[in-house]
Amino acid sequence: MATFEKSGKADPAATVRHAHVIGWGMAVPETVMTNDELSAFVETNDDWIYARSGIRQRYIASEGESTATLAYRAAQQALEVADILPTDLDLIVVATSTPENIFPSTASLVQDWLNAHEAGAFDLSAACSGFVYALNMAADSIRAGSIDAALVIGAETMSRILDWQDRSTCILFGDGAGAVVLQASDVPGGVLSSVLRSDGAGGDLLAIPSVGSIDANRSRAGANGNKLYKMYMAGGEVFKFATRVVSESVEQACQLAEVNISDINLVIPHQANLRILQAAARKLDIDISKFMNNVEQYGNTSAASIPIALCEAIEQKRIQDQDHIALVGFGGGLTWASMIIRWGIPTPSQQQSSVLNRQRRHVQYRIAKWRSRSRRWRRRVNSKVRDFQS
Ligand code: COA
What are the residue numbers of the active site? Predict the structure, then answer.
């Protein structure tokens, strides 16, 4: 796959540029919580949860794990598969509703830890649709010629914003991260089309009131009284919204990509609930076997669920060269987003350069720690010197 020279600026005479996925990776916390374990402290049971959602277990971050550490692990894997160096990246976007901080962004932390010092970094907030939004932003920047390589991550620690006394929400969510590397290429394919939508009038159906929240939402208290920094949801309404928009937006994205629904080899939907996926498959008249589904093992990991499902689909060999894949996300905002990708398996690089690149990546990760520390240390020393001089 031919790539482009780093430009930083669009060249109108250049060949048409395409954005291809060339690397992928995922990470989940070490600790698993089964429905039975959950039932020990919430009034619920495995039968109810499984019948209503298809979920059997979820991963829960421990004290030492966070949105950024999960994102970092997924990013390292994605760079490994892509076989590029962190310094080759021009952009890092983390889609998340559970950022490490309001700022600095989770993306900036990952940028620092990777030593990706040529990359811009920012977080994107579009709830469970965030990964498709972020992938679209990165693909557009590549196609416009302003960047050549981007790392797009969906990462969440939903366990930190759940109200563990609210059985209507806490049973559904889990923690994790997934990442892809997108790269410019002159080979047709990759991201073919995207449809991004929002309906802010439905913002009160699914929300996490937080810093700066005016009381518009909280005055209409939901199941948990709409506690600050805790998620609340009108489950039935969200269910109806989700089944409608999944089919609608996949159809729209297919039209834009000039691809028939019957040409879609695999749909990778946001993993919210098995019943939503079954209803959407019926509406689209696509056999449910063409829907990737791993909600049983992970629960709803919000912006992380699509890249995690993508990684598992690749691992299970459910994606072949030239396949058409539909990604579809939906969630808080309300937001929803679909994307059609024509998969182009990257040309494997020479084994020797792979080994060399692996070593160079590991050196860069080690340098990253020292670089970060020395920059902080230099800043402190400079500030002391200035204080002393004034
Ligand atoms: N365990 C046992 N019983 C529970 C329960 C739980 N965890 N949560 C609710 N119940 C009870 C309710 O209290 C209610 O009891 P009642 O009939 O005595 O009043 C009963 O189960 C039915 O509750 P209801 O809320 O009507 O259930 P439901 O069939 O609508 O299922 C959801 C609830 C949340 C599973 C369903 O609405 C849903 O999947 N919504 C979409 C959520 C989603 O995917 N959101 C994320 C989008 S990104």
Answer: 128, 270, 300
